[in-house]
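Each record in this resource describes a single protein on a pair of labelled lines. With that in mind, the following record should read easily:

===
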Amino acid sequence: MTEKRLGVIETRFANLIWENEPLATSQLIKMCEEEFSWKRTTTYTVLKRLSERGLFENKDGTVSSLVSRDDYYATQSESFIEESFGGSLPAFLTAFTSKNRLSKKDVEKIKKMIKDYEEQ
């Protein structure tokens, strides 16, 4: 799989696209100028780099995603758990809950997710 991990600025740029897509390149340039104080060439350079990594495309002057925001973050989460916890979700949850207390609402949501998963 193509490396899709984004830096801080790339993440902000990607979110700008995900929140407004599809959008004309001229619109993206204007948004990046306002948001990041970028010149047109910087916007094209970052867009080209993320397009080469398979996240976005610029087709006929319209920018859209090839990977949704949800899919991107799901892949990043899977990679993090794989790299940091040997792919063990229980090990991740143990580490997470040792420092972060789950609310009753969160516990109920997790129980529902597990129940729904078991029913599939």
